[in-house]
Design brief:
Length: 175
């Protein structure tokens, strides 16, 4: 994790965070729902939340019904329309948080500079239990939020727990 870059964000009055998965209907909107609610009381910095997918499979669709059901049962409210990751996010976002290694790789392929690359991290790098795992190490797979698409609701609930722990760790970085 780029600690120098994260420390540079601490002085900002507003931080923009984009959550990114493959289709932008399961994991990244769930992560956005969690971050949006959990950061609502942050005043300095305020946190703006976005999400996208690296594919164009679901552009314009709402969240997957089981993903939305899972976050709503947990008390989160979030309106979502799927969109595709756009490289302009490197100019507009402060953090681009990937849900898995393949999406991280796709995002990094679009990066044009070290400055762009410094913004790209795995969401679960902020999970205190996974602190210190390098995404490019042999343990990097432990940082992935598994895609629950096609699974039953218990898989979505497991994903929600992973996301909640990572979001709590992320917000601790800015307290």
């Amino acid at each position: 994790m780029n600690s120098d870059y994260l420390n540079s964000l601490k002085g900002k009055s507003e931080i923009s965070v984009e959550m990114v998965c493959l289709g932008n209907i399961c994991r990244s909107p769930m992560a956005a729902a969690v971050l949006q609610r959990e950061s609502v009381n942050f005043k300095n910095p305020t946190i703006r939340v976005f999400s996208s997918g690296t594919s164009n499979y679901h552009i314009g669709e709402g969240a997957h019904r089981l993903s939305m059901k899972t976050w709503e049962l947990a008390g989160y409210r979030y309106e979502h329309v799927a969109s595709r990751f756009n490289p302009r996010s490197f100019q507009e976002m402060d953090l681009i948080l990937a849900m898995d290694l393949s999406n991280r790789a796709m995002i990094l392929t679009a990066a044009k500079s070290d400055s762009d690359r410094s913004k790209v991290m795995m969401l679960r790098q902020f999970d205190p239990a996974l602190n210190g795992i390098d995404p490019v190490s042999t343990a990097g797979g432990e940082l992935e939020v598994p895609d629950p698409w096609g699974e039953e609701i218990d898989s979505y609930q497991e994903v929600l727990g992973m996301i909640e722990r990572a979001v709590a760790g992320l917000l601790d970085k800015f307290r």
